C-alpha cells in the first residue's frame, strides 16, 4: 500500500529540518510520543531473534522501531520500545541529528565527539563536511566575511587537497545564491543538503550507535537484488513479494518460433526493431530491405503480421539498417551509398552518394543519435561521419586508425564504440601469391596486392571532444558491437567462437560468453530482456544462443533456421518476451514464450507476402 507523501522520509522528499528521521522530531523527542506506563517490559531468554537464528534480537527490534517511525507508526514504535526495552537510539544521537538539522555547527561538532568517532583521519573528514556545509550556507546568505573566516580558519587547516580548496574559494565569486547552488551542485540550506550531510556523516559514525537511514528497506532491497540476480530467466516487471522467494519460469522465456517471415530471395544480413516495437526492418543480400508490421496487442498466432514495404533500387546488397528515434525514417546502406527512406510510404527521400569527403568504401554500420539531431555512419574507409537529419554532412571523425566493421553510440550520447581492423602492409616476395582470406569475415576487406599484418581493435571515442579515448588490441575478427541501455557496457562478437563484454568506464573485459560458432562470417549480437539481463547472438551453426548476462551461463540453444549462419538478432524494445533472428536461409524468425494452454501449441506461421503457410520448428535447452 502506498503511503501518503507526507509520511515519506526519503532525502528526496524532505526539506532540511522538517519531518521525522530515524524516529526523532524537530524538538529532539521521539516524535513527542512516550510509551504508556501500562506497557510492561517483556523479558526473553537469549540474545538471538529465534533459538536457532544468527540474527541478534536487539538489532532486529531496533530496525523495526526505525521502520515504524519512518513510515508514521509512531505510537506503535514507542510501544515496541517499551515492551522490548530496546531504545532506537541514545539521546546523544538525537541531539547530534537535531543540531545538524538546525544548522548549529559548533554544537554539532561537540555532539559528534560523543558518538564514537575516534580515528584522527575520520574526525578530520567529519569536520570538513561540517565546515563545508557551514561555509556554503554563509555564502548563500551573503555573509561573505564570515564565510571567508570559515575558509581560512576551519577548512584550510584540515590539509584538504589544494584543488578542492581552490574550488571552494572560487564560489565566493558567484553572482548570487542561485549561481552558487548551480555551480556547487548544492540545493541550499532550505533544500535537502543538511539531510544529505547526515547521510555523509553516517559513514564515520558506528552503525550500532547511529543506525543508517531506512536500514530495513536497504536490507530488503539487497535481498531482492540477490534473488533477481540468482533468477537466470528473470524477465518480468511484476512487483516482488516479500511472502515468497522470486523465481521466473523458463516457460515465460521466448524459446518458440511463432512466425517465419520469408520474402527475401537471398541471405538476410541484418534486422532491427522500430523503437515502438511494432515494425521490424530487414536487410538482405538480395539488394532489398523490407519493413514488416508485427502487432503486439493480441496473442501469438492471432496477431496481425504483414509485409509493409519492400525497399528496392539498391545497386548492391544491403549491409545494414537503422530506424530514426521517432520511427519515421529508415536508413539503409549498400556499398558506400546511404539511403534515407520514409517508413510510412516506403519511398526514398534522399540518397547520399559521392558526397564530397563522404564515404569511399563500404558503409558497415549506421546509428541514429539519441538526441534525434542526426545519424552516424562508419565504413571500411576508416571514416566515422555524423550527418544531419536531412542528409547534409555535419562533421567527421577520421581517418580513424581502423577500418570500421561496426559501431554503436551509448544511449547517453557520450561515446562512440567502434570495432574493426588495422592493415599494416609488409613486403612480400614477388613469387608469393595473395593470402587467401575467409569469405565474409572482416579481414576480407583487406586490399589484395601485398601481404599484411592485421590487428583487430576496439576504439572508444569521446563524442564531445571527438578524441580517441581507448584503443584495445585483440586477436581475431571483431564483427559486431552493442551498448547496454545504461551506457556502461558493450558486447562484442569476437572470433573464434566467443562474445566479450567490456566495462566502458574502466575499461576492462568483465565477462566472456562461449558456445556459439564464429570463424569466417559477420555475426551480430544484442542485449535483451528486462534490464538487459540476457545476451543473444547468432552463430555459424544455424542456431541462436542466449546467455544470462551477469553469470555468463548459457541458457538456450535455439534451432529452427535452415543451413547457413544466423547473422543477426534483435530483441523487441517494448515487448520483453519477443526477439527476432535472421539467417542465410533467407528467413526471419520471431521468438516468443511457449503458449500457456497446450491446446494453443501450434506450429509457426510463415509470412510470405499475403500468403501464410505452416512450417515445423523445434528448440532445445541447455540447463
TrEMBL record:
PROSITE patterns for this protein: CTLH, LISH, WD_REPEATS_2, WD_REPEATS_REGION
Cleavable signal peptide: none
Keywords from the named record: Repeat, WD repeat
Stretches the record annotates as Disordered: 1-33, 424-446, 592-623
Example of a GO cellular component annotation carried by this entry: GID complex
Pfam families assigned to the protein according to its UniProt record, in alphabetical order: LisH_WDR26 (PF23627), WD40 (PF00400)
Any one GO BP annotation for this protein: proteasome-mediated ubiquitin-dependent protein catabolic process
Domain CTLH: from-to ranges: 89-146
Residue stretches of each WD repeat: 261-302, 311-351, 356-397, 566-592
InterPro entries attached to this UniProt entry: CTLH_C, LisH, WD40/YVTN_repeat-like_dom_sf, WD40_repeat_dom_sf, WD40_rpt, WD_repeat-ST_regulator
Entry-linked PANTHER family: WD REPEAT PROTEIN 26-RELATED (PTHR22838), WD REPEAT-CONTAINING PROTEIN 26 (PTHR22838:SF0)
Record's protein name: WD40 repeat-like protein
